[in-house]
Amino acid sequence: MSESHRSAPVGVILAVDPDRFAEVVEALRQAGLTVTGEQPVLGTLSGTVAEDRIPALEAVDGVDSVDRDRTIQLPPPDSPIQ
Predict the structure, then answer these.
(1) Taking phi first (over 0 means left), then psi (-120 to 50 degrees means alpha), and beta for anything else, what does residue 23 get?
(2) pLDDT beyond 60 at 2
(3) What is the reported pTM?
(4) Which secondary structure element, helix H or strand E, spans residue 14, and what is its range?
């Protein structure tokens, strides 16, 4: 697939086997994930990936779930934008 036809990157949050965290994260990187945050003890990580690569992430052995990141950024309480 050419770069012009690749789907846009989306944020994802993954739950993985914490006992195999490093191994699973490396496999996810090879499947196209750009890791942006890791919590090895909890077995969770966040990152970005082309939307059409999500099935490849779900297929990695040791991945329990792949969900779109739905984090909402709120302004701080003292911000003029309320």
Answers:
(1) alpha
(2) no
(3) 0.77
(4) strand 9-16
